[in-house]
Write a structure and sequence with these properties.
Elements lengths: L2 H12 L3 H8 L3 H10 L4 H20 L9 H51 L4 H23 L9 H8 L5 E5 L3 H13 L3 E5 L2 H10 L7 E4 L8 H9 L4 H4 L3 E5 L4 H10 L3 E4 L4 H9 L3
Parallel strand pairs: 1-2, 1-3, 3-4, 4-5
Amino acid sequence: MKTAETINIVCSELGITKADLAKRMGMLPSSLYRKLARESMTFEELQKCLDVLGVTIAFNLQYPDGNVRSSQANHEMLLERMELLERELEAARKAAEFHKKSLKDLRTELNSAVGYTELGKRHGSKAEEYLEKIRQVLTNMESTISYALGESLNDEPAAEETEDMEALEGKNVLLADDNELNREIMREILVDHGLVVEEAGNGSEAVEAVKANEPGYYHFILMDIEMPVMDGYEATMKIRKLPNRIRANVPIIALTANAFPEDRERAAVVGMDDFLIKPTNSVRLLRTLAKFL
């Protein structure tokens, strides 16, 4: 459940409006509405929201009002939802701290790469040595990114995988992503390796494309998670429920910037077959698709 949905439910159960919540948080109602709609509340704002709602729950428990659903069971349920929000907030804090450290490490590595390049320009006789240093730095940067995403990084395909990746030529891929630039980048990678790409701008378009074509027409679907109209989770569930089993069982790979373990778990629950984190490189992408041949 999204943070905005949880806050809406808690406010409804407590009998307070989001306008009242905004005032107690020291925000303009319009600002809170926008942040909830865009899921863009900061950690500090979420903490303040939790504090306000917590005080309201405590007050209603002490002074029950007939106009408010104030049974012990309801308040226990609300407290559980609050605890869930607090856990999500803590997880987000830890992830932010980890990625800040990773970015700091990357910045250091990048500065080193620039420094080696400048030295190489000044000392032509040692150019090869400096180029090797740059290669080492770039390898370290990729390793750091890989570690931050919780993946093992190996861009060199094994010899036995090459044949499988070549077998991808001519296969049909449905690429569902609301970001046009993302689609363009992915399309170039896929087309360069001989795949046939069709596109959808949201989950609803992806479902309709699967229904409109013959069973087995698409060999793979690359499904973004956060899309307007219908997100990737809902689209996957609808495809899995199609009456024709060939259509319903098309391999669906999540392609998303969401890297938390719970995102992987939810993708598996709705029926996605694999999970790729953006940005992904061409070898990892093609290797993943080749697994489903």
